[in-house]
Design a protein that fits this description.
Blueprint: H1 9-16, H2 21-33, E1 39-43, H3 49-57, E2 63-68, H4 71-84, E3 89-92, E4 105-111, H5 114-118, H6 124-134, E5 135-146, H7 152-174, H8 177-189, H9 193-202, E6 206-213, E7 218-224
Parallel strand pairs: 1-2, 1-4, 2-3, 4-5
Antiparallel strand pairs: 5-7, 6-7
Helix pairs in contact: 2-3, 7-8
């Protein structure tokens, strides 16, 4: 599904979020780097937007890896890397079987891919335990993801936006109605922050916090090992 929407993926991310997604990713990148990690892996990286923001704010010595299981998405990331003259490493891998040793990654990040790993996914617990396995003790998992606004009015508006605007605009621009029907539906139905916290705690994470973004339309979850 994701390999079939690569062509307009970046444009649609900006269009669907009214340009807010870039700021959300920058906030997540700065939060990741606040502990000065030596190694950062962005999983479900897609075309690499969050990884490139992390590089933008990081030290030259910071190792940054963009990881995804879609060849087509990573090919787009490689094109962007060449244009930017970036040092980011790109790896093809499943987030549920990470190619890293135990306790070897200081910070793992993901932007708008977490719900694909966890929303009605029978492998959700396995995916989260695999992420926990590779993070160093004291390291962190930073997630920026769509969320559920606390305000009932904003929540209703968000659900209408997700189900109709995201689905229809995404389908029209990409030509892939099935993909954007899934993306819109998963956004509208994704879990409350409390449910996300429970999943992370159940996988061994501690010190879990949540920071709402733009009235709770999205948010940053931070968890430690």
């Amino acid at each position: 599904m994701f390999s079939g929407i690569t062509g307009n993926y970046d444009i649609l991310n900006h269009l669907i979020s009214f340009g807010l997604d870039s700021g959300w990713r920058k906030a997540a990148a700065k939060k990741c780097l606040s502990d000065s990690p030596d190694m950062v892996v962005d999983i479900g990286s897609g075309t690499g937007d969050l990884a490139f923001h992390i590089e933008e704010f990081s030290k030259e010595s910071t190792s940054i890896i963009a990881l995804d299981f879609s060849v087509e998405m990573l090919e787009k990331a490689l094109e962007k890397r060449a244009i930017k003259g970036s040092r980011i490493e790109v790896i093809l891998s499943d987030a549920g079987a990470l190619p890293f040793a135990d306790n070897s990654v200081d910070c793992i990040t993901t932007s708008f891919s977490f719900r694909n790993l966890t929303y009605r996914n029978p492998r959700a617990e396995k995916n989260l335990r695999e992420i926990h396995r590779v993070i160093t003790p004291g390291g962190r998992f930073i997630v920026v993801e769509s969320s559920q606004p606390e305000s009932e009015i904003f929540k209703k508006l968000f659900h209408i936006y997700s189900r109709y605007y995201v689905t229809n605009v995404g389908s029209m621009v990409s030509g892939n109605k099935k993909a954007y029907r899934y993306l819109g539906t998963s956004m509208a139905n994704y879990y409350e922050p409390g449910k996300v916290k429970d999943m992370l705690e159940g996988s061994g994470f501690t010190n879990i916090t949540y920071e709402p973004l733009t009235f709770g339309l999205a948010g940053i979850h931070t968890a430690s090992k």
